[in-house]
């Protein structure tokens, strides 16, 4: 199928295959039970498949779309064997996802005409936000870009310390203040420093609190407004980090954050340690916000640019 005719780096693909191993094993165990003793895709198989997709964290809405597409194929082709189900799932899910995430990135890069390119990172504590920032900084630096980090999560001292560890590891400058400082002030200082250093990319960490959406909204709005005094269009990207291992909870966080601020891209982390990788398919489909990055391992190289065809190929391999 033409959707899968892309050539991927074999090393990257191996990491992705390995990272999705638990999700894939869990999915196929359920799928094999669902079609046991059946040679034809009929109503029973479709009912069972619906349950398999929902329990694999693909999400109810996305599952119903997939089932509807397969029903259309059954009606059109008159006969579909269960042995073909895996290939049909690959094709229909890839086709569904190709309707969203238009113009997705293929590598770690930023637009040439927006320098410094400012990324504001949001997400609740514990989702892998700081680790994602560190790995992003590493990837951008590897591309020859000059990166500056801003520690605007001043709510927790640990967040500032953690970001400093990553800044030291990747050998990029960091702008920080004391715990309890005004996050907007840190963001302002970071952008001024980045402009003075002629930086290519600025990554700003922000506090991960959702208990009061109004406070979160107000704080992020203030951070944005202050950044724009230095760089007119900042932030160019508001990246929401979600923990893939939480399954449906990741959906809920995405809903909350997209309601609180304008999120422009998503990163889904910790896919290697969970059987809930199907959540990426659901999140890709449900939110009209592109999944830009996925975390498929603990290594510094294990943050990947998300490619839906590559992902679906690995998941249903």
From TrEMBL:
Its EC number is 3.6.5.4. GTP binds at residues 123-130, 205-209, 269-272. It is a peripheral membrane protein. Gene3D superfamilies: P-loop containing nucleotide triphosphate hydrolases, Signal recognition particle SRP54, nucleotide-binding domain. Keywords: Cell membrane, Cytoplasm, GTP-binding, Hydrolase, Membrane, Nucleotide-binding, Receptor. The keyword Hydrolase applies. The keyword Electron transport does not apply. It catalyses: GTP + H2O = GDP + phosphate + H(+). It is found in: Cell membrane; Cytoplasm. Residues 290-303 form the SRP54-type proteins GTP-binding domain. Pfam families: SRP54, SRP54_N. Involved in targeting and insertion of nascent membrane proteins into the cytoplasmic membrane. Acts as a receptor for the complex formed by the signal recognition particle (SRP) and the ribosome-nascent chain (RNC). NCBIfam families: ftsY (TIGR00064). Belongs to the GTP-binding SRP family. FtsY subfamily. Part of the signal recognition particle protein translocation system, which is composed of SRP and FtsY. PANTHER family: SIGNAL RECOGNITION PARTICLE RECEPTOR SUBUNIT ALPHA. This is Signal recognition particle receptor FtsY. It comes from Winogradskyella alexanderae.
């Amino acid at each position: 199928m033409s959707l899968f005719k892309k050539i991927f780096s074999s090393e990257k693909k191996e990491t992705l295959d390995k990272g999705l191993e638990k999700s894939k094993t869990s999915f196929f165990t359920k799928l094999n039970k669902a079609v046991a003793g059946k040679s034809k895709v009929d109503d029973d198989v479709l009912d069972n498949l619906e349950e398999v997709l929902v329990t694999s964290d693909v999400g109810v809405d996305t599952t119903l779309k997939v089932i509807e597409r397969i029903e259309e194929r059954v009606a059109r082709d008159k006969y579909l064997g269960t042995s073909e189900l895996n290939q049909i799932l690959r094709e229909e899910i890839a086709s569904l996802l190709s309707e969203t995430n238009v113009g997705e990135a293929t590598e770690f890069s930023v637009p040439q005409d927006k320098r410094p390119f400012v990324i504001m990172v949001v997400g609740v504590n514990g989702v892998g936000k700081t680790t994602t920032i560190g790995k992003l900084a590493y990837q951008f630096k590897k591309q020859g870009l000059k990166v500056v980090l801003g520690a605007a999560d001043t709510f927790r001292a640990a967040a500032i310390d953690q970001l400093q560890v990553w800044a030291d590891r990747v050998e990029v400058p960091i702008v920080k203040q004391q715990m309890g400082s005004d996050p907007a002030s840190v963001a302002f200082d970071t952008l001024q420093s980045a402009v003075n250093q002629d930086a290519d990319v600025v990554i700003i960490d922000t506090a991960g609190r959702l208990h009061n959406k109004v406070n979160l909204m107000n704080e992020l709005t203030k951070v944005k407004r202050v950044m724009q005094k230095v760089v007119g269009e900042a932030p160019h990207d508001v990246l929401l980090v979600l923990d893939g291992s939480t399954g449906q909870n990741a959906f809920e966080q995405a809903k909350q954050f997209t309601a609180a601020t304008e999120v422009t891209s998503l990163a889904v982390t910790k896919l290697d340690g969970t059987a809930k990788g199907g959540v990426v398919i659901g999140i890709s489909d449900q939110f009209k916000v592109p999944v830009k990055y996925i975390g498929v391992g603990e290594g510094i190289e294990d943050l990947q640019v998300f490619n839906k065809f590559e992902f679906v190929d690995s998941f249903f391999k």
